[in-house]
């Protein structure tokens, strides 16, 4: 069975003290995660060391960076390299989140470069893809997502691809309170898996974890995660509430 993952994306929220309190609260309720499941905390960069210390020794609980740069090192003031992340023991990095694409103009090609360097340093990319509302309303979401996959991932070997987690985000459902129905989520997840199958074969496609990201909360997590091709969630606002995120972890297959 594919890895089932609940990934918390704190975005640009919480002070250090609030972050510590939230993690302590969650970890007091879930001190380890059973085999086949993973909990991942994508925290702001200043909190990576704190979070790593909190989850040290916890079974199947990990820390992610929310972004990295596409170069190994150099004169890139304010950026964070994967070498820095590796030195902290960070094992995941979120790449291509819709907010990075929209506000910072991150292109599919730039994301391909970021994925390459993350894999070089044995850091697992959580690669985000998904369509805005105008694309969904035009009915061209499949073509839009297929292009994202092709331009950012299809240069990879099958072995490399199997080291990646994909997160499908219907952008129109992020932070809006709207959620794609479980049927809509499954439809796109199945489409993504079919695209991977066409390119890499069924065995590779069936091994890739695909998360749903779009207003996941405790109330809808079990139904969403119960879909055959939905392997967990990339969770925004609900991950900032301890009881909500604990319930989401518990809703994993």
Describe it for me?
The protein has a single domain (4-250), classed as Aldolase class I (TIM Barrel). α1 (16-29) packs parallel to α2 (48-55), α5 (108-120) crosses α7 (141-153) and α7 crosses α9 (182-200). Strands 7-6-5-4-3-2-1-8 form an eight-stranded parallel sheet. It is an alpha/beta fold. 45% of the residues lie in helices and 15% in strands. It is built from twelve helices and eight strands.
List the helices and strands and how they pair.
Elements: E1 4-9, H1 16-29, E2 37-42, H2 48-55, E3 61-65, H3 82-88, E4 92-95, H4 98-104, H5 108-120, E5 124-129, H6 133-138, H7 141-153, H8 158-161, E6 165-168, H9 182-200, H10 202-207, E7 210-212, H11 218-225, E8 232-235, H12 242-250
Parallel strand pairs: 1-2, 1-8, 2-3, 3-4, 4-5, 5-6, 6-7
Helix pairs in contact: 1-2, 1-12, 5-7, 7-9
In short:
Helix content is 45%, strand content 15%. It is an alpha/beta fold and 253 residues long.
Number of helices: 12
CATH architectural type: Alpha-Beta Barrel
Please give the domain count.
1
**What is the number of beta strands?**
8
- The percent of residues in helical segments reads 40-55%
The fourth-level CATH homologous superfamily is Aldolase class I
Described by the principal axes of the CA atoms, the overall outline is globular
Structural class: alpha/beta
Q: Sketch the topology as an H/E string, one letter per element.
A: EHEHEHEHHEHHHEHHEHEH
What's the CATH topology name?
TIM Barrel
- Give the overall average pLDDT: 96
Strand order of the largest sheet: 7-6-5-4-3-2-1-8
Distance between the termini: 10 Å
- The low-confidence runs, each spanning 5 or more residues with pLDDT under 50, are none
Q: Over all CA atoms, what is the radius of gyration?
A: 17 Å
- Beta-strand share of residues: 15-25%
* Major sheet: 8 strands, parallel
What is the CATH class?
Answer: Alpha Beta
